[in-house]
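Quick one: co-fold with zinc ion.
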Amino acid sequence: MWLREVEATLLPPTAVGLGERLRLAGFVPDLPDVYCPRCGESVGPHEATMGGCPACRDAPMPWSRLVRVGAYDGMLAQAIKEAKLTAFRSLARDLGYLVGRRVADAMHEAGVDPRGAIIVPVPTSFVRRIVRGIDHTREMARGAASAMGCTVVVALERRHRPSQTRLTVKARARNVAGSMTRRHGVEISDVGPVVIIDDVKTTGATLREAWRALGGVGMERRWAAVGGVATLTRRRTGVPSI
Ligand SMILES: [Zn+2]
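Sure, here it is.
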């Protein structure tokens, strides 16, 4: 215990592992009943079923199930930003590991073996990868795969477009549409679940584009997994973007 205190007092916060930081902040990953299993938005008791919540039930969705660690807020949001903007590789992996644990739980619940899954990271453009010094989503995918005992397939690539961060809902959809393509020669197995992973879901435009580009996977095998789900009001909190 005293060692933990020393660690927390003497070391800069970035040197402390994610699990420890979240524990110190009293963070607990969300249980499945506090968010919609389809769009990932926070819901009240019995507000959502496997068919969705009042907000998404009538909207077509290119995946059958979405898993999140939590709302994009507080310590979780800080960890996600830090992994991305400070090229903090081990933090991105730890975040991915947390996502993977949640996905594995959801798959067990659904009677699906997570070891047979394929994780596909939402791609980062070459320019952004160079500027940031990290492809944090790919690192997250690796962390998730180690939690699930499955493999990562880097199946998508992305053309550079302006950051989605400060755009309106419509502008986001327009900005990301057609930006991703499936990499040549990459095979996706025709059995088992396929999970597209991203750090944050806001409008869902990026995940939609990723599923459009990947294609060729039956609806019941399509999963989406994210660290945090942001509401649109939280979008304007001045998150730095590159
Ligand atoms: Zn919903």
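If it helps, DSSP finds eight helices and seven strands in the chain.
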